[in-house]
Amino acid sequence: MVETLWILGKTLVQIVIILIPIILAVAYLTYAERKIIGYMQVRIGPNRVNFSAIPLLRRGRGLGQPIADTLKLLFKEIIIPSNSDRFLFVIAPILSIAPALAAWAVIPFADGWVLADINAGVLYILAMTSIGVYGVIIAGWASNSKYAFLSTLRVTAQVVSYEIAMGFAIVGVLMAAGSLNLGDIVAAQKGSIIHWFWLPLLPLFVIYFISGVAETNRAPFDVAEGESEIVAGFHVEYSGMLFALFFLAEYANMILISALAAIMFLGGWLSPFQGIPVLENLFSWVPGIFWMLAKMATLLFFFLWFRATFPRYRYDQIMRLGWKIFIPITLVWIVLVGLFILMKLPPWFVA
Amino acid sequence: MRPENYQPVEHPPSHEFELYFGPNHPGIEGNYALKVRFNGDKVENVTADGGYLHRGFEKIMEERLWIQNVALVPRICVPDPPPMEETYAQAVEMLGGLEVPERAQWIRAMLLEMSRIAAHLFIVGGCAATIGQYSNMFWGVADRDRILDLFEEVTGARIYHMFITPGGVRRDIPDGFLDRLSHLLDYLDARLPEYDDLFFDNPVHHRRAEGIGQMTQQQALSWGVTGPNLRACGLPFDVRRDDPYLIYDQLEFDIPTETGGDVLARTMVRRSEMIESTKILRQIIQRLPHVKGPIRCPLPNPLAWNIPAGDAYARTEAQKGELAFYVVSNGGTKPWRVHVRGPSSMHAVQVLEKLCLNARIEDIALIMFSLDACPPEVDR
């Protein structure tokens, strides 16, 4: 009994230790997005809200903005349209945020730093991210609004199609690493920056990342929210904290996709200087989590960069890209990876 | 018991649905409503429903003095006001037999071309924003702001200048203004490759804009489309060239055309027109210092200014197309009737309805922006 309680308490503490940084990261990712895109668009972005009580942050260039936004959303009224399905309307944002956070259970941040070191880690993540789309579908249906419904139809088709391409890309990684455990996938990439899977699986890496952008409904695949077409899409009727939950889920998913890409293709917590004579020793003191976070941040920057530079694809073009280009390429490359493994192509598949 | 005159409610077939696009919609410029019937994602029918910005300018102008109307006309179209002032001034000059001094004509042409660049930047940015690329919009607005700074220097106002009055302009250009204008043109030239990379040559933009909202030259002519939209169909018609006003016959410029007739062609025509406008402005910068003389012809007491009876039709090339004022005077201190032939009232209602057919939901806002439909000007 005591032992069960001890495990329960330990797990709870671990969950909190993982979740709080993630939620803070989501908050400051919105700030980073507004700042980075702001500078790319020759404007300044948020610059008013600062922590005036803390001397260092008194001129913090709007660092308090995410906190202020959260407070604003918390105090706003949650409007439930009278013609909506109340139960589904409330359950939808919960359905989309819960899997987005739950998926983090199997992500290893550094060697052994993982909440649940399960062998079916990749499968678990695929399952969780597929549940997330139900939140969007239900939101659009429950709102009983034409704009929201249109967006829901688009999201469903888009996410389902891109999940296939994404799944195939992951299959390539599984074959190369020979394991579904995310920790083992990183371990299989040990050696040097050339040993990481981005090189032998380059097409899969590109397709995985682009599918990830599509999966999270980010620009240029943001037809679900298409501001100038269907206003805000599935969350057009949401307000206050219910809306914030969708927002949180979107950004948590963005971070998740970056973390997965870093783990599966960029060697997770491995140092990029591994195998280089002098630099390796020079940087050996850097903890693995730093490399992990640096890789995630780089990939997240790409998300923001895409949004500032690409116009939105038309919906039929997105579907064509997914079905006619991505899925065939992944299929061909999976066969090639099989051949690489059979031929024991050095330096990746020698084992 | 059903009443005698019972009529069952007509529902659209189950595969069709109606959507109100506007009057308040992030993809639409100004307040303008489109009632769209969709079949799936395809547009089956569009009914434009204007009037949300009707401010009754034509009627108000009948109650104002000739000179008071100068303050009213720029408000008809927000992004591109100087052509409005110019056309109204031309109509009054025709009626009143006023001769505009040459220096005033050069200054007017300078303002018109600056305004053309500013308005094209604005509308090209708007086109980009409707397909989700806000960077180009912000860049366009930021660069337009530099032109507005120069406007402020000359006229004292950024948007509604009220500067071009019948008989001339309100005041002369300040010292060193032409140098600053020249710097601005250099800056804009340097910016153009960046715009090309970001928007005009962006492959995703080409995929979105190609073949959308296409019209043939024949259609454009029969629908009364003018300006960049007509030139995008391959017909080099430009009032500045074909019916020159001010000093445009002394300037050298090309009339850019494209043959596609679609959204992409219209955007590209606007891009080339900005380049042509910078060329025109450079010529003006060279010539203007050598044109001396007054900037305004003497006007009678504006409060008791009786303009001889008659009617006049003045037309100019605004950024959106051919803009014309038909002004009738019965010899009094106020116009008897003013009619504004706004370019977008031709292409933002019926033409928009026709071009949107068989497009998809995503393309409606893009088509509307690429036509440069300006709701305030449609409703007047």
Describe this structure in words.
The complex is a heterodimer of chains A (351) and B (380). With 351 residues, chain A is mainly α. Chain A has twelve helices and no strands. The longest helix of chain A has 39 residues, at 2-40. Chain A is globular, with a radius of gyration of 21 Å. The model of chain B has no long low-confidence stretch (mean pLDDT 87). Chain B starts with 15 loop residues before the first strand and ends with a helix. Chain B has 380 residues and is of the alpha+beta class. Chain B contains 14 helices and eight strands. In chain B, helix 5 (177-200) packs antiparallel against helix 10. The longest helix of chain B has 29 residues, at 102-130. Chain B has one domain (55-378): Cytochrome-c3 Hydrogenase, chain B. In chain B, a hairpin with a 2-residue loop joins strand 4 (164-165) and strand 5.
Task: Indicate the topology.
The complex is a heterodimer of chains A (351) and B (380).
Chain A: H1 2-40, H2 65-75, H3 86-102, H4 121-143, H5 146-177, H6 182-187, H7 202-215, H8 227-230, H9 240-265, H10 277-282, H11 288-309, H12 315-343
Chain B: E1 16-21, E2 33-39, E3 42-49, H1 57-61, H2 82-96, H3 102-130, H4 134-155, E4 164-165, E5 168-169, H5 177-200, H6 203-209, H7 217-223, H8 228-231, H9 239-242, H10 263-287, E6 310-317, E7 322-329, E8 337-341, H11 343-347, H12 350-355, H13 361-370, H14 375-379
Antiparallel strand pairs in B: 1-2, 2-3, 4-5, 6-7, 7-8
Helix pairs in contact in B: 3-4, 3-10, 3-13, 4-5, 5-10
Summed up, the helix count of chain B is 14
Q: In which range does the helix fraction of chain B lie?
A: 40-55%
Overall pLDDT confidence of chain A: 86
Number of H/I helices of chain A: 12
Shape by Cα distribution of chain A: globular
